Design the sequence.
């Protein structure tokens, strides 16, 4: 029986599926297998509320048992902390600009509606 080669969905390289797993769609490279497991995890969290709750509880438990992790990480990785600070400034500026645009549009709409009412002759109806 001839063996068929398949194309990996992550790296696009051809590979020979395992005889024990004929429906295999991902090659055996470590990076592709890591991406396969991550995709499964994301899909499972999105579709299974019980699994999502277990993941959430596990993360919370870890954070509670390591309360100083973030502080020590930021001290030992100053470049990452500086980059995060810089990126946050950009996100904050973008949020402020979006807020101003929304408020200006609302003010312009109010003004134009009031102007539309004032421009009509006193006895006219729409």
Sequence:
């Amino acid at each position: 029986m001839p063996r068929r080669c398949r194309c990996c969905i992550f790296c696009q390289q051809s590979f020979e599926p395992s005889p024990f797993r004929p429906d295999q769609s991902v090659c055996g490279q470590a990076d592709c297998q890591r991406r396969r497991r991550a995709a499964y995890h994301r899909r499972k969290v999105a579709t299974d509320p019980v699994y999502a709750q277990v993941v959430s509880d596990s993360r919370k438990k870890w954070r509670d048992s390591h309360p100083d992790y973030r502080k020590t990480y930021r001290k030992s990785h100053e470049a990452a902390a500086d980059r995060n600070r810089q990126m946050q400034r950009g996100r904050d500026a973008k949020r402020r600009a979006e807020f101003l645009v929304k408020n200006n549009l609302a003010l312009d709409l109010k003004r134009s509606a009031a102007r539309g009412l004032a421009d009509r002759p006193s006895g006219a109806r729409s």
Notes: Strands lie at 6-7, 14-15. Residues 73-116 form one domain. The two ends are 80 Å apart (CA to CA). The longest strand covers residues 6-7.
